[in-house]
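Most newcomers find our protein records easier to grasp once they have seen one. Read left to right, the backbone structure tokens trace the chain's path through space. Nothing more is needed to start thinking about how sequence determines fold. An example says more than a description, so a record of this kind follows:
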Amino acid sequence: MLKKDVEGKKGLTNVKLLFYFGNALVPGFARASVRELKDKDDSYLVRKVQEGVERFDDEYVRSGIDWLEVHRGVACKENSFSLVAWFRLGLEEDEFSWGKLKYATPVLLKPGLVFLLPGLEGDGGLNICLDLPDDQVDEFHRLLME
């Protein structure tokens, strides 16, 4: 199964909800069996991904948001890895009554969940937000600097 977080605002229609602001990342999926991955040609697999994208409409997004509210976010299973790219959401471009957002970060981190966040305003950098055990931090830093 291929999981890709999709920008929720793009899938919603008629977003005139009271107190609505911001965006959401809604998980989108393309499914194929191991046999399909091994036996089918690339065009078949591309079609499976396209089918997943086509399912991404207003009803799908609203259903996904409801699911996230009930389950309090997507559970990160042990030994799993999920990479979420917040830097593509354009959060730093949104204008609020107090001005532009200075910084955004997730409230809760879970092992195996990695967020890519925009760097400081205008620096073109990237911040990585993750939960690592203390004994792995030095190795992670070394790998990043190579």
Q: What stands out?
A: The chain has a mean pLDDT of 73. Strands lie at 2-7, 25-30, 82-85, 95-96, 99-100, 113-118, 126-129. The chain is about 35% helix and 20% strand.
